[in-house]
Amino acid sequence: MKSELADMAMDQKRTILDGDAPDAVPVPHALVPHLDELAILLDIDGTLLDLMPTPREVWVPPGLSETLKHLTERTSGALALVSGRSLNDIDLIFAPDVFRAVAGHGAEMRLSADNEAEAVHAPPLDKELKRRLAALAKLSPGILLEDKGYSLALHYRLAPHAEKAIYEAVSLVRAELPNAPIEVLPGKFVCEIKHSGFTKATGVCELMKHEPFKGRRPIFIGDDVTDETVFAIMPDMDGLAFSVGRRAMGVNGHFDAPADVRAFLARLLDPR
After folding, report:
1. Listed residues 137, 170, 195: the one ending a domain
2. pLDDT digits over 104-130, tens only?
């Protein structure tokens, strides 16, 4: 039981396959004339933006916001960012631009870029649980704590040696609180703890029930384990899924790096 979560993290990372997964995806020019039929759904960290040593160091490359705004216009607003970050965090990154979004792994949603109203699907984590989990940042120098309200993330990109200790400690907390409605999300040098019952996939399903997304064919691009729930539902929506930096199971293709995703999105605007 002590190493259950550490083993789980390793098992989830093994979903990356080398033999059966698709090759890098070419730009699907056939989609360009049909942007008015598409919903474009984009993860942020590791997909649109390059990963950095800490979450606060990410930055929006020149031209990306303009590309996203033009795609929003061409799709009549059917472009949304799908992220584990909070809405507030997303807005700080892309300021002064505001985009429709599924945030907090599906806990928050903004259906209109002109409307600050948020649809909240989960309560914040219990304060005592947060306190106990936050104390795990003391396991090693370099572990960074991020409180997202609906979840709590322990980033260890600056302390990769601490991965096993983090997951073992989280497993102990869960063993002591077996009835706590929480779920652990292993990611790229991050262990995130959130309320169970909502995911990026549940957020996307809710998003696709509303205009201007309703009735459109979704295209989702993501890079991490937390994006796999969305990869899994794309066939049910006649959608397309693309992974970044790895060849994930069940996707239609993959990009090598966020720069390739940004170039792909820019080329969607140019039929030539």
Report:
1. 195
2. 999 899 998 776 656 566 777 888 888
Supply the pLDDT for residue 179. Answer: 79
Residue 116's domain is classified under what CATH number? 3.40.50.1000
Split into its structural domains, the chain has a count of 2
* Domain that residue 234 falls in: 22-122+198-268
Query: Which of the residues are catalytic?
Result: 43
Say if residue 187 is in the same domain as residue 204.
no
95 with 109, same domain?
yes
Q: Which pLDDT belongs to residue 125?
A: 81
Residue 114 burial (CB < 10 Å; 0-12/13-18/19+)? exposed
pLDDT tens-digit map of 162-213:
999 999 999 998 888 877 888 898 888 999 998 888 899 999 999 999 999 9
Q: How far apart are CA 109 and CA 102, in angstroms?
A: 5
Does one domain contain both 51 and 76? yes
- Amino acid type, 125: L
77: which residues sit within 8 A by CB, 6+ positions away?
Answer: 100, 112, 113, 212
Nearest Cα to Cα of residue 147 among 124, 117, 167: 124
Which one of 152, 177, 195 terminates a domain?
A: 195
pLDDT digits (tens, 9 = 90+) for 134-143: 999 999 999 9
Do 187 and 243 sit in the same domain of this protein? no
pTM to 2 decimals? 0.83
Provide the sign of the torsion angle of the four alpha carbons 108, 142, 224, 33, taken in this order.
positive
